[in-house]
Design a protein that fits this description.
Distance between the termini: 29 Å
Largest sheet: 9 strands, mixed
Low-confidence stretches: none
Shape: elongated
Oligomer: single chain
Order of helices and strands: HHEHEHEEHEEEHEHEEHEHHHHH
Helix content: 55-70%
Strand content: 5-15%
Number of domains: 2
Amino acid sequence: MRMHITLALQNLRMRKFRTAGIACAIAIASATLFISLVLTLSMSTSLRLSMAQLGADVMVVPASAESSAEGVLLGAKPVRWHLSYTYAEELEKIEGVEAASPLAFVEPPRECCSLRGVVLVGFDPARDFIVMPWIHRAGGLGRMQVFAGSEYALTPGSQVELYGYRFRIAGRMEPTGIPYFDRGIFMPLSTLYLLTQRGGGDLREGQVSVIMLRLSPGADAERVAEAIEFNFPELKAVVAQRALANVRNQMHLLLGSLLVLSGVIWGTAILLISVILSMSVRERMREFGILRALGATRRFIFGYLMAEVCILATLGGALGVGAGYLLLSQVSGYISASLGIPYPMPDRLYAGLLSVGVIDLALLLSTLASILPAYRSSRLEPYHAIRAGE
């Protein structure tokens, strides 16, 4: 086996153009497949995670904010429109609504805070069912205390400066995959109103950005949404499952196209590998004949060629997976903005297991593509092979 690998490496170094061509074909096919799989699995997980973490069945926003509503509900970005807090009380009176949780989002100027890119999230402790479960697990929220998103390396007891005030961190949320939650600083609405008044923001006391609704068991979300828009024409009610279905359809269209493209590329790569190896066998008949004359068995010749293919497949697969991961990490923000959903990159263990799977598949398909040319080369008789290579 060691001899197979040594001879294969020597041959690959001597035929650099052919080596680069096959490796690039496998790399492109592997990168396409890796990207398709990561997008499929990560985005599906992201959708489920967003809905589970927000815990809302219906989201209510001003009618003018309809175009951004799905992105807020699915966690891609906070909305900047405002509506009156009093709607929360009115909405709870509608049949089927169990609880109404108003939230206010503020993206403050950079100079106001010790944290960059922070989103201030105000909630009503008496009504909230989204943020308060985390706070209860941490032991509650005291005076001049706030709760931090998972993105910040802030330990309980550390301090953060907001609009000139120092707040103590009461605890941190677990990662949610929701960008404005993971980089949020959470505080009661009353505290947020005081800060924005001091900083000259556009959020006024009594205003909120959205109102999340939790429905009673068995309630029809579509009917509740229709009742809300009938009674309050100035509002837009977005049903969570409807928003999820819309984004899922977009996602399936994109991913279906990627998988088809990946299949076409793999088919082309397999054909290319088979053709190049067949040509290589014809060019190297004299080499194989000499090896056979020196005592090399047919099995040795077959293993020699298969070792070349395995090295190329491993190299191409690894390069493709690495390039795919790098590309995804660079365009994750664009993916999130385009589809209106958060897109968390997979963790290292998940990415590592998926990488191994893609490389193994590259090895399998490349091996299948090379079996016939390798078998033909191993069947050559020494004399005829040497004569044919002259």
